[in-house]
Amino acid sequence: MSRIAKYPVPVPQGVEATISAGQIVVKGPLGSLTQALNDNVVIAQENGQLTFAVANDSREANAMSGTMRALVANMVTGVSTGFQRKLNLVGVGFRAQIQGDALKLQLGYSHDILHSMPEGIKVECPTQTEIIIKGANKQVVGQVAAEIRAYREPEPYKGKGVRYADERVIIKETKKK
User: pTM for this one?
Assistant: First the structure.
């Protein structure tokens, strides 16, 4: 069995996990998330913990047990505390501001970029050059951050662009004569 699947997922106070036919639903103060179950993994709920076991001795079942455990652990964390991703805008005149449920970006193009947020995602701009994306679903938060970063990725000569707060951009030396 996968080593990660051996550890049970604790369900904190205020979070409710329901295992029904073919899916698991996790509800908490920040929302509700649903995940389809795999036939190779058996999930049991006992003593406020979710345990994962393989249904058969195949290699796929072993791999899926660890994957399902990680997905469910992220669901529990998401509905209880949530996930967030920070982005920084580096460049002269690069700005971000919130317009309703969309994010307006000025990234040095001749036009402004309006990026609408999917359902369940909140965005904050503490300053004009910082963006904080929050949500319960880890995959959607990361996807939205990647889409915003893709509008202008950091370039290697001056470092201008949209970058993650923890990202280090290695600056190249310019060409010499």
Answer: 0.89
